[in-house]
């Protein structure tokens, strides 16, 4: 029987631009626009300055650009810093089959590769979709045990995505594909205990850098176990509860990118259904703080191990607190990148509401991206609402999604690059498949 590693890599290697569905190509552009937006805004976060200081101290061949900045770094450092910047706000896309954030490991590795070697827009799109697909299939293969054990899939599974994107771009043969996956497996890392710290976005950066390195070494002939996913003492054996090949087979030839979901709140995606449910209640009832006895947030049990920081002390911790995000929504505050600051985490009005929130695990909700909220008033009246944010965007709604993502992009990018560059980037991404060289977008995405 052909190994799981080879079956997955053969499928991904066979993806060609001319065979891709129009919807997949369109979604790849949506992913790039969203990724550029969160990365340019994230480039101003303190963790990026720390990484840049380290990169400049180490030096190296400074040939690759940092998005949102005027600096250049060695390829690995550029992938790492761009990856960390893009996940710094926790405002980037998600996909359930991966169990994490698909774009933040892949685009930074691809951009570094594209800056070293001339790459057309069509080559870039097909390589990105290949990387995205690798994440979906490896993530499914390792599910559900991998994430449940405490591994952060964006850091672990994302390493395979970055390696696959670069391998596809360089049109590796089967042997080099398997070596790239072996090298990715040997470097894949990321722990959920780091949520709420700078190390969570660092995971995304390391996945990008390690995947890029895996592909570059495989391209030079570096050897690795070609069955790293399923081997005894391999990736699945050490980091999951068994090989979920049935789940991968059920995917057939459908592309995982069809189920990508975008964020409109800059917090852990598992808080979004609760934010939506609370917002619905406040839109309808405008409940005052003093009228609330208790807010009961009912979520799947797994949420308590991801986003249940009880008393966040920093903006980063607040992104992983159902109590805090509930308070933001209740008070009608912003939930974008400006909302999650250290100052906000100590806001007495938000703390007052947060202290009235009780998170309750339940098993009756339809999926992992849903929530049920009950506001209990001092009078005894109970107000109920629920929300489900598991739905991916169907093809006929993509124009509306592009408009929504463009508005998000303007809010993120215009304060950094200005209105003209922001508009030029939107237009350039919209026509991505016509570009002869990706360096035109890379140049637009840099601070002047």
UniProtKB/TrEMBL annotation:
Ranges for domain MmgE/PrpD N-terminal: 7-243
Alphabetical list of SUPFAM superfamilies matching this protein: 2-methylcitrate dehydratase PrpD
Molecular functions per Gene Ontology: lyase activity
UniProt xrefs under InterPro entries: MmgE/PrpD_sf, MmgE/PrpD_sf_1, MmgE/PrpD_sf_2, MmgE_PrpD, MmgE_PrpD_C, MmgE_PrpD_N
Transmembrane regions: none
Coiled coil: none
Record domain MmgE/PrpD C-terminal: where: 265-433
Similarity comment text for this entry: Belongs to the PrpD family.
Entry protein name: MmgE/PrpD family protein
Lineage: Bacteria, Pseudomonadati, Pseudomonadota, Gammaproteobacteria, Pseudomonadales
């Amino acid at each position: 029987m052909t190994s799981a590693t080879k079956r997955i890599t053969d499928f991904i290697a066979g993806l060609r631009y001319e065979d891709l569905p129009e919807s997949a190509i369109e979604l790849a552009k949506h992913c790039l626009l969203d990724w550029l937006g969160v990365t340019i805004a994230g480039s101003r976060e303190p963790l990026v300055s720390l990484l840049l200081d380290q990169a400049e101290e180490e030096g190296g061949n400074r040939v690759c650009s940092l998005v949102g900045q005027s600096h250049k770094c060695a390829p690995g450092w550029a992938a790492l810093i761009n990856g960390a910047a893009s996940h710094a706000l926790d405002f980037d896309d998600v996909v359930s089959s991966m169990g994490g954030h698909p774009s933040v490991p892949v685009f930074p590795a691809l951009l570094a590769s594209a800056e070293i070697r001339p790459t057309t827009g069509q080559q870039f799109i097909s390589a990105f979709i290949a990387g995205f697909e690798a994440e979906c299939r490896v993530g499914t293969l390792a599910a559900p045990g991998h994430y449940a054990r405490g591994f952060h899939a964006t850091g672990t599974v994302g390493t395979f995505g970055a390696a696959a994107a670069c391998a596809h771009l360089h049109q590796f043969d089967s042997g080099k594909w398997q070596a790239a996956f072996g090298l990715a497996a040997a470097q894949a890392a990321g722990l959920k205990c780091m949520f709420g710290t700078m190390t969570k976005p660092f995971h995304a950066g390391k996945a990008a850098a390690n995947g890029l390195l895996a592909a570059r070494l495989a391209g030079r002939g570096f050897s690795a176990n070609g069955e790293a996913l399923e081997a005894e003492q391999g990736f699945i054996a050490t980091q999951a509860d068994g090989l979920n090949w049935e789940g991968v087979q059920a995917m057939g030839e459908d592309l995982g990118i069809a189920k990508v979901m975008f964020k409109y709140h800059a917090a852990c995606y598992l808080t979004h259904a609760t934010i939506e449910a609370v917002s619905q209640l406040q839109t309808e009832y405008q409940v005052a703080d003093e009228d609330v006895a208790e807010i009961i947030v009912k979520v799947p049990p797994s949420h308590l191990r991801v986003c249940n920081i009880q008393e966040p002390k920093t903006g980063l911790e607040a992104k992983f607190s159902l109590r805090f995000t509930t308070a933001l929504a209740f008070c009608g505050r912003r939930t974008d990148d400006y909302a999650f600051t250290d100052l906000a985490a100590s806001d007495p009005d938000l703390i007052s509401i947060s202290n009235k929130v009780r998170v309750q695990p339940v098993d009756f909700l339809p999926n992992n991206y849903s929530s049920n909220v009950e506001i209990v008033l001092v009078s005894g009246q109970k107000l109920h609402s629920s929300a489900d944010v598991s739905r991916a965007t169907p093809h006929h709604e993509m124009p509306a999604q592009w408009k929504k993502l463009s508005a998000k992009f303007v809010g993120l990018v215009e304060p950094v690059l200005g209105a003209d560059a922001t508009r030029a980037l939107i237009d350039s991404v919209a026509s991505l498949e016509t570009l002869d060289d990706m360096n035109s977008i890379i140049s637009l995405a840099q601070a002047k």
